[in-house]
């Protein structure tokens, strides 16, 4: 079911705001990862504003839902969503990557409210998500555990070790979100080491698979609902996205995987995101 | 012959005792539960045991998640695979994230014996010592192991605990207090300081006794915590004796010998010799044969002491 008109409007505004943060933060820092942040914007926004059971005023609350950004370089979108959700002031976003700030290039779980683990070494998030999922089952808690993984990141072997664990323990409280933007640092994923037949791969590992357009807020919302409804096995949301989505010159190129816009480029980007 | 016990048995006993008291203690293994004796915990608390399969990286990551969820996980695997393969998971998901995970490296040193080089961890202490926030504990025998497991549970933060497989002599005493980071002085002496870790305490005690008969007064410090190391005890002893020998069932690169060298060279320069394995891999053999081959024996400590002190040695 689609969001109401008002809700749809809310998310259109929110995702635009977050995309503006992303380009401004990376411009401020002179470095960072806009491409994979812009591709994950709808996935992260709908997750945190619609589904995650968290309390920004009490970020370490024991029974909270957990989120693990396995593609740890996409802090611009992660920090922006956390700030908009109220975990820390929006103004702090403009300290991104500053030496005297806490919003490091890759997230530090110890210091930033809402960040449940440090990440930045690819492949580690799903194992951690499973740890929370296993303990939730042990404790009889309804908390859920989410993990966002990049498509290039699926080349890391630990992801598949973990995918076996999730399925083996029937962790239906774990949801993996694959930001399938088709591009990694060097090139298109299919040119580097392809991840074809991704749905079949996850299904073969014992997962329930939902394949969606990751920029369609209604489809994203329905996918999270389906993951919650699915019992007895974990759900992987395979979200087709566009790397650099929303900024014309950043779209569908690996050039903007890890590069910041200069002032001129920022101006163009902000116009497009107005 | 002294009473012997496998350190892993002391580990398993302590774990179960703690498990009885504390609901939040969970145990994970990587398909070595029988060998690591974590199956004893599994039998007692099946719901609090998780076999993650042959995947050390996933094991450590899962343990980190359990710590995020408020538990105190003990993640077990063979030390060589665990510290080698899952180093990065310990670095990011455990130490950098400051998660309260206890990493237990089994088959310490030569104790996998005939399995050969692939299974003999002689570099694990070196790897673990380099990780910020990691505490590194290497107990001497099954009795000290029990105390170390208890201390590890109550310590808030990441720990690496090294556990041996095969029976070794019991040389420590139950009533002796155990404090993380605090060396234990087994003998007072004035001519030379022997610093041992792990099961090398046994050979070091023998060597110190023999040296005394030869008229050499040896002080013996047992370092069960390699990080943070007890600098004060090392400096005080070296200031007195000016001669130091380190003894470890591990490479001389990066382990106890290196840690002591760092302390001495910056604070109390002394003549130093490191006894351990010399930048080499292991081979297949009975544990006794391996200890002979690597010369991790009292006779080598004695000859090294005499050489260091400039004594003429008659063989």
Automatic annotation (TrEMBL), chain A:
Is Zinc-finger tagged as a keyword? no
Cofactor field? thiamine diphosphate
Q: Which Pfam families match?
A: Transketolase_N (PF00456)
Q: Which organism is it from?
A: Peribacillus simplex
Family statement: Belongs to the transketolase family.
Read off the InterPro entries from this record.
THDP-binding (IPR029061), Transketolase_CS (IPR049557), Transketolase_N (IPR005474)
User: What are the alphabetically sorted keywords of the record?
Assistant: Metal-binding, Thiamine pyrophosphate, Transferase
Q: What is this protein called?
A: Transketolase
GO molecular function annotations of the record:
metal ion binding; transferase activity
| Transketolase N-terminal domain span | 13-267
């Amino acid at each position: 079911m689609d969001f109401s008109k008002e809700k749809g409007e809310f998310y259109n505004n929110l995702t635009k705001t977050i995309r503006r943060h992303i380009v401004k933060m990376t411009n401020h820092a002179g470095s960072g990862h806009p491409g994979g942040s812009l591709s994950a914007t709808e996935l992260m926004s709908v997750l945190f504003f619609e589904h995650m059971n968290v309390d920004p005023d009490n970020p370490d609350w024991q029974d909270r839902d957990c989120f693990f950004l396995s593609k740890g370089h996409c802090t611009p979108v992660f920090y922006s969503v956390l700030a908009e959700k109220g975990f820390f002031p929006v103004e702090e976003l403009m300290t991104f990557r500053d030496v005297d700030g806490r919003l490091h290039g890759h997230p530090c779980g110890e210091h930033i409210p809402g960040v449940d683990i440090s990440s930045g070494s690819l492949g580690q998030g799903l194992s951690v998500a499973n740890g929370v999922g296993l303990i939730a089952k042990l404790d009889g808690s309804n908390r859920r555990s989410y993990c966002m993984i990049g498509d290039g990141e699926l080349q890391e072997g630990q992801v598949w070790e973990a995918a076996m664990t999730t399925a083996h323990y029937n962790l239906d409280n774990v949801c993996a979100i694959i930001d399938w933007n088709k591009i990694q640092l060097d090139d298109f994923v299919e040119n580097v080491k392809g991840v074809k037949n991704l749905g079949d791969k996850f299904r073969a590992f014992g997962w329930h698979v939902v394949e969606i357009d990751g920029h369609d807020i209604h489809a994203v919302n329905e996918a999270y609902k389906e993951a919650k409804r699915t019992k007895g096995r974990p759900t992987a949301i395979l979200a087709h996205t566009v790397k650099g989505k929303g900024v014309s010159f950043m779209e569908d190129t690996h050039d903007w995987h890890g590069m910041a816009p200069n002032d001129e480029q920022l101006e163009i980007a902000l116009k497009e995101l107005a | 012959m002294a009473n012997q016990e496998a350190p892993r048995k002391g580990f398993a006993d302590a774990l179960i005792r703690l498990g009885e008291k504390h609901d939040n203690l969970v145990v994970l293994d990587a398909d070595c539960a029988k060998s690591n004796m974590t199956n004893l915990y599994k039998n007692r608390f099946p719901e609090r045991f998780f076999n993650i399969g042959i995947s050390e990286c996933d094991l450590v990551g899962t343990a980190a998640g359990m710590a995020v969820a408020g538990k105190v996980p003990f993640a077990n695997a063979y030390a060589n695979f665990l510290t080698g393969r899952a180093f990065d998971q310990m670095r990011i998901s455990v130490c950098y994230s400051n998660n309260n995970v206890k990493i237990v490296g089994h088959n310490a040193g030569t104790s996998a014996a005939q399995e050969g080089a692939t299974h003999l961890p002689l570099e694990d202490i070196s790897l673990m010592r380099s990780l910020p926030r990691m505490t590194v504990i290497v107990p001497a025998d099954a009795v000290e192991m029990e105390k170390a497991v208890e201390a590890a549970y109550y310590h808030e933060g990441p720990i690496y605990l090294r556990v041996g497989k095969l029976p070794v002599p019991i040389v420590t005493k139950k009533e002796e207090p155990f404090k993380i980071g605090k060396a234990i002085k087994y003998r007072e002496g004035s001519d030379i300081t022997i610093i041992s870790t792990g099961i090398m305490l046994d050979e070091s005690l023998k060597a110190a006794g023999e040296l005394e008969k030869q008229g050499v007064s040896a002080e013996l410090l047992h370092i069960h915590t390699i990080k943070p190391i007890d600098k004060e005890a090392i400096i005080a002893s070296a200031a007195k004796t000016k001669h130091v020998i380190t003894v470890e069932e591990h490479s001389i690169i990066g382990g106890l010998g290196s840690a002591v060298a760092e302390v001495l060279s910056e604070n109390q320069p002394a003549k130093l010799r490191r006894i351990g394995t010399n930048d080499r891999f292991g081979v297949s053999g009975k544990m006794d044969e391996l200890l002979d081959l690597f010369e991790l024996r009292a006779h080598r400590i004695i000859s090294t002491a005499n050489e260091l002190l400039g004594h003429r040695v008659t063989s």
